[in-house]
Amino acid sequence: MVVDFFKEEFVYILISLFIFGIALFIVTRPFVELNAKKILSGLGIFLVVALIAHYNWRMHHIKTVQEAFEAGKNILCLDKTNKIGYVLINKGEWKIKNGEFVHPDFPRGYNIRECVVE
Question: 72 — phi, psi (to 5°)?
Fold first, then answer.
């Protein structure tokens, strides 16, 4: 689970570290009031809680889409190569493999994170 967390949230961890780094740079300037350093602990806690909440929401979304697919419901997936923008996926020949919907007639799969239940 820890590996999944870092794999899924890597970009958001980098963004959080960047935000925290900027805040650290600002509050360590000599002209900033000493009490402003207390903001860092609050910001750190907020960023950690936001990362964990985002991860939990994302895992819940993936689980919901997988369960709906297995129940036979239609799934809409974002298609960045098509002008229409979406692909309708149903249980027919589509399979879930490594977090993607794959079909023998399509050259590429569709990531579950970019799909919603119709």
Answer: 95, 10
pTM of the shown model: 0.77
Token couple for 12:
């958001």
- Angle 2-27/38-70 helices, nearest 10 degrees? 150
pLDDT digits (tens, 9 = 90+) for 14-54: 999 999 999 999 888 888 787 777 888 899 999 999 999 99
Q: What does the domain layout of the chain look like in residue ranges? A: 1-71, 73-118
What's the CA gap between 46 and 68, in Å, rounded? 33
- Between CA 71 and CA 90 the distance in angstroms is 10
Q: Which two tokens stand for residue 1?
A: 């689970």
